[in-house]
Amino acid sequence: MTSAVDSPPDAEVKLEAGQLVGRSPGQLMWIRFKRDRTGVISAYVVLFFFLIGLSAPVISKLYGKDPYTVYADERPELFDSAGVPLQPNGGISGEFWFGLEPGNGYDVFTKLLYGIRTSLMISVAVTLATVLTGIVLGVTAGYLGGRADYWISRVIDFLLAFPAQLFFIASMPVVVSLFVSPRDETPVYVRVVALILVQWFLGWMSLGRVLRGTTLALREREFIEAAKVSGAPPGRIIRKEILPNVVTPILVQGTYMLPNFVTAEAGLSFLGVGIVEPTPDWGQMFAKASTELVMQNDITYMFFPGISMIVFIVAFNLLGDSVRDAFDPKTAR
């Protein structure tokens, strides 16, 4: 007879103080995730980006520079008549670690730090809003069924027909104009709120549809029927029985949604309808790097924001794959 000590690593029991102790699904998931080297490395990379984003003011203070100083005016000797840094590689030196931005001459290192901070803060806010909306509407449609399911499903079908990127571009000026007159300068917080609202509006449907299908399957299970027979109200059944069983699709979908929102936010800023100067932003740096002045004279400026975004997106996508495999080992490659 096989003992608990000889059981396979993924067994749901372990020997502790001479007794068999069951492992929870969360513990099993954590064990599987820790064995995935790619997932662990990706998690560290993602955590690093969030840490440097949150620590941007501290790093900037220690570095002795900020992303708002126009060095083209304060240090004109560093630039030629076209506004291009005189030193090679975009002006990279011991004083300016990542060089200087052509034109205004912003410090690239601090601008990148604050740009990462801006993009991640907006994307996290959009992800939280879309996840909460998807949970509320998806679980409601799946559990209640009937007319609630019909109307929520029709709303999802209708919104999925929208071309997302075109809608984002066209609706951003409209949303901004709801807060500020076109004749006035738009505050940064208004643009941030508009970016969150626009992306949230077309961002929750995929998660809502997944949770609707999952909840439809769960509501026919025996433990749900037992809860109904015991007299538990629908709200309690959803909180205590349904939600704990849809954590997996929520986490997996969330890890895929956030990098998509990062690229969407950067794309809007790149097109000039998102965050604009002097507020640092990832997409805004790409827009600056694509101008004729920079492309012809200083391709180095594209290197740092480009590499950082590629590394972040790839790491987060790999993290999403690892989270999915850890929750459902049958999907593992």
Automatic annotation (TrEMBL):
GO terms for biological process: transmembrane transport. The keyword Transmembrane helix applies. The keyword Transport applies. This is ABC transporter permease. Gene3D superfamilies: MetI-like. Residues 116-320 form the ABC transmembrane type-1 domain. PANTHER family: D,D-DIPEPTIDE TRANSPORT SYSTEM PERMEASE PROTEIN DDPC-RELATED, OLIGOPEPTIDE TRANSPORT SYSTEM PERMEASE PROTEIN APPC. It comes from the Bacteria. GO terms for cellular component: plasma membrane. Signal peptide: none annotated. Keywords: Cell membrane, Membrane, Transmembrane, Transmembrane helix, Transport. Belongs to the binding-protein-dependent transport system permease family. The chain crosses the membrane at residues 39-59, 120-146, 158-180, 192-211, 299-319. It is found in: Cell membrane. It is a multi-pass membrane protein.
